[in-house]
Amino acid sequence: MANDARTLQERRRELLRRRIAESGVAAPEATERARICAGERYRLSAGQRRMWFLQAMDASDVTLNICVAYELTGDLNQERLRVAFNDVVARHTILRTVYSVDSEGEPYQVFSDDAEISWSTYDFTHPLEEERERRIETLARDEFGRPFDVTNELPLRVTLIRTGASHFVLILVVHHICWDDDSWAVFFRDLNAAYNGHHLEESASQFVAVGVLENSAEPTIADVAYWADTLRPSPEPLELPGVACAHPSRRAERRTQTLPPDLYGRVEDFARKDSASPFMVLLAAYGVLVRRYTGASDFLISVPVTERAAAAERGIGYFGNTLLLRMAARSQDTFTSFLEAVRETCLRGFAHQSVGIDRVVREVNPERMGHDGMDRLVRLGFSMRKSVSGLALDGVTARQLPLGAVAAHIPLALAVGIEPEEVFVEFEYQTDALSSALVDQMLSDYIQLLDYALAEPGSRITSMGMLGGGERDAVLAASHGELVATPATTMVALLEAAADTNRDKVALVSDESELTYAGLHRRANRLARWLIGQGFGVDDIVGLRMTTSIEFIVAVCRTESRCGLSADRSGLPGRSHRIPHYRRPPKNGYWAAGTRRRGKGGRPAVGCRLDGLRPAIPVASRSIGLCHLHFRLDRPA
Fold it and tell me: Exposure string (b/e) for 261-297, b if CB count within 10 Å is 16 or more?
């Protein structure tokens, strides 16, 4: 334990050292940045290369579109808003950058000084409200589903829809090649200042300068080796619940639900007590949900991360990477032990996050299917989303609308959004991979699992409650018909009652014969008398070979089960002495073996041929398997 604690502390110190170095605290910030000029060609960062490659492979791909929409209410000045957007574009070169390929096939980026954003306006003030809502949603989906041509189109599109005298809808679409989650805060700060007439004295950080020219460090051999050792051999591709589509598209929908007011507070308290973070607790709960729905104990979850140095804090751009975190959800794990494993996985992954996802995929070398091999590695995503509610224009109230991207890169991704007034969880899913009803149920179960895990962290993850009180009652009600109170009885008594009331009705049917309740009762009595004649008494043990014959049912019906044992003697350490000895029966015969505790000296009776138990067809073709059962003989009527 001491060695484990020391190893954990060393990893934490290494992660802290890297964070300090990246933040610029360890050394004074350089007073001069690398100079960049319009029209010059610059190489792409590792993250940009990945985005460019994915878009170049499929020009119609819209999975890299980042999409948001807002309802604006108030005295909005449309022209002033357009000028403000152009001011932001003029401030950040990455928003007026296009991408191309040189004569040797290497991609490059180049920005211009006189570019303007794509700005579109619409007037929907006349249609009725219901028709207006439909037209807004249709227009938003069209904009979200329109791919970018990054070779000659700026990576930001703005659409403003007037819906009333003081009501508007603002639609923003930006390409991932120039944007990460931390870019929202910078963008809204600059846009708000430009619209509200505030002057920003500090200059903006330019992505090419701080993210490309000043960031040429290559990952270490140890970092690369970590991912190779962790991800090889890769887990089997995860089979998600539901009916798989033969030719799935990447069309996507979302399901969102707000967490109960106190639940996220409990997550923070629980994380603090377990030396973890809320991210780790929420990720662990997601891992449990996947384990319960798929049965998989080994799978990968993709997690987006950003790695910004202090010099990049005022910049817009893609400073991100994707980590593949391996979840090992063993059946014996409690939530506490699983969280410890998830915490360890996260700390190690974050400490080696300098290796780009493309390099990781090359090292793991999966079967190259889909876009880039990722399809064979990971089908799940998880993230904690930064707030996108920073739009604050003078005299205008902004509210984010429940509209989002129309395509997704992976089949199922869970995002936890932290907003000033609420915390929500959102599942984004490919509609050809999962049904909306199933995702709704998964969302409800995730919140229920999270609540249960915080209340009972010592519970095994395979037995944690996923159903609320009402859901549990509904499932139980649907599992049976009308409940009728019946007195306690035995199988023998039930058979005798059935023989009295339904004597001539068919009780058993085989391929060659039928048996009525009266006939079943007679044959069961005959067998019982025969066994008594052989010296077997009450509480003696009889072993039966399980078949699908009528004769086997006859034998069972004249006994009352005490306990069952496995057919495999090796699976019962310490109890195999209780299983009667047996010999292989003849091809068309049936053997029984028993141990007489009383009568005839208590000697084992091995291989007593019971002609009355001969199967209707050969044992070799009818037998389900060999199963030893302990029975208590009941006296015949």
Answer: eeebebbeebbeebebbbbbbbbbbbbbbbbbbbebe
